[in-house]
């Protein structure tokens, strides 16, 4: 049977556009409903400390209007954990968070934040929420994440996406991801991937065996301005299906 890759659509930037004028449109709930109708497998949102796009109300509203799983990206701190436990999305993905960064620029440094993460993860043990950690494709990070007892990781594909734009070191970045996925599989992880993926660069990531899920946001929302959200998602799905080995 042909492999299937779950597609998560990150709708943060619908809220970015809304917040740019302080209006109540475009509505994130409308986007969430279209994502579901388009056959995406999950909706991903990132509640940031500064609430620059999605806020708690958006999260609650989205959870109320869709039945596909919601994947909440959060920084590893108590404020965000409280939100996750209160709203109970199906999945949480811990990401690093620096206020000044434009986007999530790298994976979470599990090696150097091990004790802090261990404490945070304890708060999740009695909740029925799947926990993932967003990491760079790196052996040491994988080993540390395994020691934490987390079973799912999302690989940060940003370095690969940047290399793709610059047409420089693409093979090297792809090799890092491919080898990390193979190592992660040996360690028993479920592997997801995301960041900076587009119609042009997604196929090589899809071709890596054992990637189970992709989370794609900025490109899809940007492309929707020209082609609409539904057809942008359908086109991404088509490219992914075609690239599956
Ligand atoms: N996955 C994670 C964990 C992220 O933090 C992000 C960006 O918020 C994405 C996927 C989506 O990245 P992009 O918006 O570049 O597609």
Task: Describe it.
This protein is an alpha/beta fold and 245 residues long. It has one domain (6-243): Aldolase class I (TIM Barrel, Alpha-Beta Barrel), CATH 3.20.20.70. Helix content is 47%, strand content 17%. It contains eleven helices and eight strands. The chain has helices at residues 12-21, 28-37, 56-65, 78-87, 114-122, 139-148, 158-166, 170-186, 202-206, 218-227, 229-243, and strands at 6-10, 42-46, 70-74, 91-94, 130-135, 152-156, 190-194, 211-216. An eight-stranded parallel beta barrel has the order 1-2-3-4-5-6-7-8, surrounded by six helices. Helix 2 packs parallel to helix 3 (56-65) and helix 7 (158-166) packs antiparallel against helix 8 (170-186). The model has no long low-confidence stretch (mean pLDDT 95). The protein binds pyridoxine-5'-phosphate. The site of pyridoxine-5'-phosphate (PXP) has 19 residues, from strand 8 and helix 10.
